Batch of 4 targets.
Target 1
Amino acid sequence: MATHAPLRVYADTSVFGGCFDEEFQEWSKKLMTEFETGRMTLVLSDLTLRELEEAPSKVLEVLEDIPLGKIEQVLIDDPVRELAHQYIAEGAVGKTYLTDARHIAISTIHKVDALVSWNFKHMVNLRRIRLYNAVNLKHGYCLLEIRSPREMLNEG
């Protein structure tokens, strides 16, 4: 039987905070278990880490249960900055949502299997997903899967 590499999943800050939100905690916690056990690899950016450091300490502590070997760290770099700028320039998201654009760009540049978020306004939104992916294709990047943790886990 063939073994498959775990899915590489980029989680934005809302997923960690979701562990403490009545509406989202069931699915955020289940996703964290997938990361803890290695069934999925958490792709974690320096942007997400900075946001988590500004969150209540209990939100940052969610990371402590995930073994370092199950986390892949990625950084914002010039290609990420440029692609985020393109999302804004081409109307996928407004300039006041640069952070959201950067999460999308990081996920695209680092070719994750999916980005997960509870941000339904600027990320997990079919119209915006189509706009982000149109920009990705125009600039030679792959399509990006953007899902809520619940959608991600229902796939499995």
Target 2
Amino acid sequence: MTQLAYNLTGTGEKYLTFIHGFCESKAIWNDFVPYFTENYRVLTLDLGGFGDSKDLLPEPCSIEALAEQVAELLRHLQIAKTSIVAHSLGGYVSLALAEKYPEFVEKLCLFHSTALADNPEKKEIRNKVIDFVQKVGVNQYIDSFVTPLFYTKRTQELVEAIKFVEEIGKKTPLQTIVAVVAAMRDRQDRLHVIKNASFPILYIIGKDDGAVSFESYQEQIQANPQIQSLVLEETAHMGMFERPQETLKALKQFLNVV
């Protein structure tokens, strides 16, 4: 099987893997990677269907199938264990990976992501997204999708970051968007994965995240004494751009980088 597109850099003894979210690519972590390359060998990858892996959408597509591709890449690179920082969809994929292959995971940061399955209301929203993108096409969908991922009162200030994320999103194939929205809609609840995890977990939470409600985190962050959390005020779903200093500091502490 063709391997996922990836970059591997750094000189550390341990491994650190960054996994992007929906309609993103490994490029969203560009500003973060240099801070970890002295302590880690840092892997960034494009999930199947996205970025430079856009021709590798698994068929049939599921969160488990996306996770299996990540596992295959780790095996190909002979990475036996890695810490993982995973944004949104990347968190769903990482939890599926941790469920099937817990031996791969040293630490896990769920960066604006959740272990819970979609509730009926969210499933209906996913169905509407599929209908909408099929009707209007990728560019118009991304124009409507990206800006609300950022905290409303800072969208003017963050216009360059919004443009950057939009440019990445507009390169996503229509087939990927439709298939992955359905995969997110149908994903399993993985609260048991974090409850039973033997590895440390960090949640990075946007207080004003429209994609994952703040209230939905309460049960999760109390599920396991190994869980730490950072709650960011006036922050939505894109903390790596909205709050780069705070999120970077939290990651460095979590990953023991001075």
Target 3
Amino acid sequence: MPSLKKILAICGSTRENSTNLKFINAIIHLTEGRWQVTVYKELAALPHFNPDLDSIPENTSTTVLNFRNQIRESDGILICTPEYAMGVPGTLKNAIDWTVSSGDFSHKPVALITASSSGKKAHQSLLETLKVIEAEIDTDTETVISFAQTKINDQCIITDTETKLIIENLIVSLTKKTEAAH
């Protein structure tokens, strides 16, 4: 029996009941028996990125070190984020900035879902950031879900057939990437 893939899920929204967290929970259900998903819950607790604090290891906060460690220990990363004012949510960008010097995303399989009203501008921006930090991401492991609130219900069930198929294909692709990375 193949081992469960350890996936770290990062929700770009800090709202308690966000649409993006609903999509993560739907994916947890869809990957039962294949993935062991840990949802990172301290996004808002990460300090503002400051290269001066990052250049001296003993000055780097425990929250940052724990975040980096969770990335390193994962087989793959799932990011599900909204678009705020045509951009990437600040807390998500801040978290990613904390990994630039440590290289934790370098060659790490990543899936990116931008689930928002539109999402295209934030998605493109975040894709560029992930490519710069050498995340393993391609067209099979990224998607935009526009009008996201209309495609999932409060029970975290994807109600739109086309969206569910896209998510299922993304799951298969990320799983293959995690297997190829080992």
Target 4
Amino acid sequence: MQPTIRRDLFTQEVFDSGSLGPLVSVIHRFDCEGTYSARVLRHGAPAGSFTFIVDPQSETRQLSIDLSGVADGRHSGCCDGDDPSHWVLSPSGYVLFYASRGRGYATLVAEGDQRQPVFDSSMLRAGDLFALSLIEPTTYHATDRIGGGKAGIAVKRDPKRTRNLRNLEPVYVEVGQGTMQPHEIEPASAQGIVFRINTESRIVVQKTGKTPDDASRVLHRSLRADAPAQNKM
């Protein structure tokens, strides 16, 4: 059987921390012991729910939850009959939220039966991470729609680096109030990019549509144009 090529992975132009789809994820730490209930939203509408447990006895350091899987019934919460070991996390671990299919996903997570969320994936806070991979070698522009910071991204076709992606360190971007540092990055195609959040943020990465050959030139030009506005903040 021939492998199926997912064309949507090569045509996506917007990557949004508040509206999850393929190639992006949001990572949050729940360091208080207890049971957490979460609601899944798609394009703002209820799409499913799940629960998980934070237990000091657990040795699990990462819990990965596919929001699209919850929405279409492929995954349920730890108290709905699944093996609880798959839904229990150490307080020193992290929950990674992603959507393997479709777009527009977010989650609201509350403690116990409370309605007030302790985590809202559409508004990241200090300590959260937003991770993504950009496949197409071209230019992108990252904007924090809450904090106001900006950065330019020029994805390079680099066979030497992409041959060893598993051992390739991600590129890190620090997100502060009105800033992203570094404010220009040049990752290899499919190399991980991680935005470290230090203030309330919603990161949106938009493809500019420039050709790979023009990537560096356009990146530097756009950053020079943005520089005066950033310096005033």
